[in-house]
Amino acid sequence: MRHVGAREDLIREGDRPDDVQLILEGFACRYKVLPDGQRQIMAYLIPGDICDLHVAILGQMDHSIATLTPCKIAHISQAAVLELTTKHPSIHHALWWNTLVDEGILREWLVTMGRRPADKQLAHLFCELLVRLQTVGLASQNSFDFGVTQEELGDTLGLSSVHVNRVLQQLRDGDLIVLKDKRLTVVDVERLKLFADFDPLYLHLTRRLPPALAQGMAS
Amino acid sequence: MRHVGAREDLIREGDRPDDVQLILEGFACRYKVLPDGQRQIMAYLIPGDICDLHVAILGQMDHSIATLTPCKIAHISQAAVLELTTKHPSIHHALWWNTLVDEGILREWLVTMGRRPADKQLAHLFCELLVRLQTVGLASQNSFDFGVTQEELGDTLGLSSVHVNRVLQQLRDGDLIVLKDKRLTVVDVERLKLFADFDPLYLHLTRRLPPALAQGMAS
DNA sequence: CGCTGTATTGACCTCCTTCAAATGCGGTGG
DNA sequence: CCACCGCATTTGAAGGAGGTCAATACAGCG
Question: Which of A14-18, A156-160, B34-38, B54-58 shows the lowest mean pLDDT across its residues?
């Protein structure tokens, strides 16, 4: 268990750690950096998410993970993970299930990046975060703390920070969102979902891995 | 076991089938269609790949799968999958491993779509397919059959078919590839990899699920 | 109160899209 | 063997979404 500041690497591409990390508080992200210095963020990790289960199976990280905000992190030894997964099929199943949901999110992000204009990209991302954060009790009906930079939003959606800025203004002007003091408020959730063409099916909310179970693994 | 023509759906978003499909021959793809009719392809499925293992775990498809070329498909009952995974931890592990590799591919695609220009997008995709097809014996040192349409390539990379066409010509002019008669030949593999900034780490080739094992499941 | 990092704005540019037409080509029926 | 059809590829011209560069404003903080 440890505290980490914002914008610090939790694990880097190529690493072969012998433990697995679990986010208890704060936001983190998976990312890769290209030779020319461009960065692409490929996932947001929120409390309850396991960072690098891959390592226990694949042996080596094929991407890096960094905090976006200050975080509280739990460490679980890989041996413990292996024991849990081999001795408790239900946990193995739950973790696999979790992996499949992550895959679903990645696919939806691909749709977003490939086929949605910038304003809907942002809107869609906000819808997803609202729903995901609600399931772990970190969002109200229509708002949540969101200390992510416009630069980081750009790296997430494949946009420049300048363009993110302009599009955010559009969304504000259209009365879709309020983003102020590191808090995002959705003015009318249904309207934003409609605008973003957001269908939560891909999150498979009905059977999410209970954060309690995940946290239980830490002990 | 059945034969399917090109451009036919194998399974659709929302379906809850009670079997799982395995590609024995041909190419297929995962895709979603937006309300405005735009399509995004999110994965290529090649022989040895399991289409919709998700269903056995998540219960419902959150995307569709269609053939790109004529295919030979094997069906495996979900009951058989569940029995295999519960009774044979090694198979469970192998399938999970497979899922994680698919996730790695999705992340790399996200990088491609977000941060690479069109010419490198195509080059990177070709590198990936070359390597993946080599591992299942369907590509020579530098070429493979590739009956995918420019329109479909566009839907894969988030580009218009017109632009795909022009960029393909650039790649041909640059002597990087030859794409003719539904066969893709890479003129100089190392040069293309360099151009595309292709690093196969994300494919985790060292431990791929042996196609033989996958096919064994069909019986 | 100055420093540092983020947000904002403006001007210009370009990669990629859209629309529309033309070309090529494998199959099919006569 | 040829005419014709449907589909994919190719080409051209014009437009737009988003990028780059650079300056400015702003906010938190030591």
Answer: B54-58
Find the angle CA(B210)-CA(B216)-CA(B218) to the nearest 5 degrees.
125
8 Å CB contact of A110 and B40: yes
Which CATH number does B1-77 carry? 2.60.120.10
Q: Using the CB atom, is residue A60 less than 7 Å from strand C?
A: no
3-state secondary structure of B38: coil
Say yes or no: Cβ of B178 under 7 A from any atom of strand D. no
Looking at chain B, the domain(s) classified CATH 1.10.10.10 span 88-219
Q: How many angstroms separate the CA atoms of B104 and B91, rounded?
A: 20
pLDDT along chain A (219 residues), means of 10: 95 93 97 97 97 85 97 93 85 85 97 98 98 97 97 98 98 97 97 98 74 52
**pLDDT of res. B209:** 46
Q: Who among A30, A103, A109 is closest to B99 (CB)? A: A103
- Residues 63-122 of chain A with CB under 7 A from strand D are 117-119
* CATH of B88-219 given 1.10.357.10, 1.10.10.10, 1.10.10.60, 1.10.3210.10: 1.10.10.10
A54 to chain B: which residues are within 8 Å by CB?
100, 103-104
Condensed to tens digits (0 to 9), the pLDDT of residues A39-68 reads 999 999 999 999 988 887 888 999 999 999
φ, ψ at B2 (rounded to 5°): -155, 160
CA end-to-end span of chain A = 10
Chain B closest-CA separation from residue A200 CA (Å): 9
CA B98 to chain centre: 13
- Asked if strand C comes closer than 7 Å to A162 Cβ, the answer is yes
Query: Binning pLDDT at 50, 70 and 90, where does residue B208 land?
Result: very low
Per-residue pLDDT at A208: 47
- Whether the CA torsion B112, B113, B116, B120 is positive or negative: it is positive
For chain B, give every residue range classified as CATH 2.60.120.10. 1-77
Q: Is A185 on the interface with B (CB under 8 A)?
A: no
Question: B-chain residues within 8 Å CB-CB of A100?
Answer: 53-54, 57-58, 99
Closest chain A residue to B100 measured between Cα atoms?
A54
